[in-house]
């Protein structure tokens, strides 16, 4: 078994991006600037946004964090999105999801200028992804594909099973891996909560990717000997041995599945850091695409 070390791979990507920033500085060019909107005080969202801001600092990107209270009206958020769309100093921005229930997430996502949508959630970018046209790929699926690529994993002709069909992970990932690209050219099965015979479908997978948020759901008897296993799930579970009282658990029963897998991602330290690295790649591209 080989560990698919997303932390190490993301560190290499960040070094490459830091070099690109250094080169741009030497040429007197603009430095990429990422803005993030965070609504409320959800622990998970705050952790993710802080990690994104920290990655910007590490690479040398500029970053701006905009915070709102949970009760922020939708119109205020939409107005902020509009002002970021128009702000020439900002190359790309994200609105950290989930948003409070009174705000229509799709409305906010659709208000973002597709050329600044570095999370790749706008319908225009998702459409470009489907057609294999230039645009921004959603950060988590793009990070997974990059992890596969940089670890030399062959995907062509492989049976790939994705568990979970969310708009931000499972659905786009299934399309990216089925496209005529490298990595890609997989025969993909996209599964969800209504799928019948899930265990049997999973046990035929050469590449098994779980993105459902159910700790320990993927058991060893669902996994083929030698499969590549990628765990997107991150759920906070209680852990009284830690000062903060919790730890992150993935969807995969790592202890037992790792005995059968050829490659496997850990949680934490697998897909999470790759998501951030992808966001940074998209931010640099957002600036380059505009010829800055
Ligand atoms: P989500 O919106 O929470 O949706 C969950 C998906 O899992 C749905 O498609 C659901 O099916 C499916 N599902 C739930 N129970 C199932 C079951 N028993 N069998 C088969 N499918 C089942 O998904 P998400 O936002 O992609 O999040 C999934 C997990 O990934 C969460 O733990 C999240 O924290 C994590 N995540 C991690 C990263 C990262 O960077 N590491 C990024 C994003 C998300 P239905 O559609 O039928 O309801």
The side-by-side strand order for the widest beta sheet comes to 1-11-8-7-5-6
Q: Judging by the overall fold, what is the CATH architecture of the largest domain?
A: 3-Layer(aba) Sandwich
Instruction: Please outline the major beta sheet.
Output: 6 strands, parallel
What best-fitting shape do the alpha-carbon axes yield? globular
Percentage of residues in strands: 15-25%
CATH homologous superfamily caption of the largest domain: NAD(P)-binding Rossmann-like Domain
Q: Give a list of the ligands.
A: NADP nicotinamide-adenine-dinucleotide phosphate
The total of beta strands comes to 11
Classify the secondary structure makeup into a structural class: alpha/beta
- Identify the CATH class of the largest domain: Alpha Beta
Relative helix content: 25-40%
Tell me the domain tally.
2
Strand-helix topology:
Blueprint: E1 2-3, H1 6-26, E2 33-39, H2 43-59, E3 62-68, H3 74-86, E4 92-95, H4 105-111, H5 123-130, H6 139-150, E5 159-163, H7 170-178, E6 187-191, H8 198-202, E7 207-210, E8 228-231, E9 235-238, E10 246-249, H9 254-257, E11 263-264, H10 271-289
Parallel strand pairs: 1-11, 2-3, 2-4, 5-6, 5-7, 7-8, 8-11
Antiparallel strand pairs: 9-10
